[in-house]
Amino acid sequence: MKKDIENRKDIELLITTFYEKVRSDETIGYIFNDIAKVDWEKHLPIMFDFWENVLFYTGAYNGNPMIVHQHLHRVVPLTKTHFKQWEKLFTGTVDELFDGNNAILANQRALSISTVMQMKIMTEG
Ligand code: HEM
Measured from the CB, is residue 68 less than 6 Å from ligand 1? Predict the structure, then answer.
């Protein structure tokens, strides 16, 4: 039986598995690998903090993902297809590894943040 997302260790497993899929994904992998040339050793701990804060209100993350993606969008236009694929990989990873209220919450938050992010990008002047 799958367990729920309960602590930082669970978030580390979720996020590491998710970005392994992202990096080898045909639709969005190149944005991370070739365009942003993400330094994963730096990026992953930021993402652990972000998701720990989203789920457990730890206050660990204090960046601004909306601005980061608006900048990225100027370098490579982010499309509905990119976001749909991101969402599919994220919710697919959550469902593959976990089950429970926090797993449901993680998927809901991912989708709502993604929706807001797309609105911000599209309404940008
Ligand atoms: C088309 C979809 C997306 C693409 C291609 C994308 C790509 C990226 C890239 C390239 C970075 C910069 C990594 C770096 O160089 O450090 C980044 C950062 C980040 N992304 Fe995304 N992203 C997408 C959607 C999302 C969504 C939906 C969320 C949240 C639910 C999210 C959360 C974040 C966060 C928190 C950061 C770190 C920002 C910081 O440095 O403070 N991303 N993303």
Answer: yes
Is residue 1 one of the residues assigned to a domain?
A: no
Ligand 1 mean position, distance from CA 69 (Å): 6
**Nearest Cα residue to atom 2 of ligand 1:** 83
pLDDT at 93 exceeding the cut of 70: yes
Nearest CA to ligand 1 atom 43: 69
The answer to the question of residue 3 being in a domain is no
Sign of CA dihedral 10, 103, 19, 36: negative
117 lines ligand 1 (CB under 6 A): yes
Domains held by the chain: number: 1
Identify the DSSP state of 98. Answer: B
Q: Is residue 16 part of a domain?
A: yes
Give the angle 60-49-63 at the CA atoms, nearest 5°: 70
What residue numbers bound the domain in which 39 lies? 8-122
| 77 lies in some domain | yes
pTM for the whole structure: 0.97
